[in-house]
Request: fold
Amino acid sequence: MKNAVKPVAVKQSLFQKVTVAEKRSLSVCSYGHEKRGKTWFALSAPGPVAVISSDSGTENAVREWQRQGKEIYLFQHTLPPLGQKIEVYESAWDRLAEAVYEAITSAQFRSVVVDTATEVWELLRLARFGRLTQVMPHHYGPVNNEFRSLLNKAVASDKNTVWIHKVKKVYKTNKEGKDSWTGEWERSGFADFGYIIDVVIEHRIVEDDDSGKLDFGVKVIDSRFRPTEVCGRIFTGFEATFPALAMTLLPDTAIDAWED
Reply:
C-alpha cells in the first residue's frame, strides 16, 4: 500500500521512578583494639546470624549469645601462614568467598558477621599476589574491584552485615627521614569500606560519668543516615548494640526489623 504510515518506535526511558520503601537492613564497618566488644556488638544483630570467623576468640562470644537463645551458625577458617605456594591461598580464598556468598544469599540468615574483614582482605591479596608486600600500586586495580564487588553484593542484599576490623599504627616520616609512629591508630583493611558501607563505628572502653564504672562504647565515625546528628556520638550500655544503633539511624523503621 502506497504512502503507508510507518509506526513510530517509542523509546523506553532509561530512568525509573524511585519508590520509597522501608529499609530493613544495615551494613556496618566496625573497628577497634582487641577486647573492646566488637564481636559482642556484631552478634547483637538480628538472628539467625551467620558468622564467618578467623578469630579463635569468636567462639566464646558465640557461646555467650547462644546461652541467651541466639541462633548462630559459624564458619571457622584460618589464614594460611606467609611463605606458602599461591595455590594454598587461592584454595583458601575460594572456600571463604563461597561461605560469604552463601551467607548473603541464603534465606536462612538475617545477619552476617565477618570477623575479621582485615584478614579477608589479606587473604584475597595473598590469593592474587602470593604476598602482602612489594606489590606495585597499579597491580591492585583488579583485586580492588574483586573485593569491592563482593562487598557491594553483601550491602545490596537484604542482610544486615557487620565487618569487624583490626587497627594498625599510623606512621609518618620524621625530620630524620625515617618512619615513626605518630601515636595514632587507624582501621586496617580495604580502604574503600567507608564509601560503600552504611555506617562506620569505632569500639572503645568508656567510663560512666556517674558511677565511674567502665563499659563498652561505640563511637559513630561516619554514617549515611542522619550524619549531622550521630557522627561523633558515643553509645554506651544498652545503646551500644546493633538494634539500638539501627533504631537511632533509622528511627522510622519498625522495631521488629531489628529484633530476633
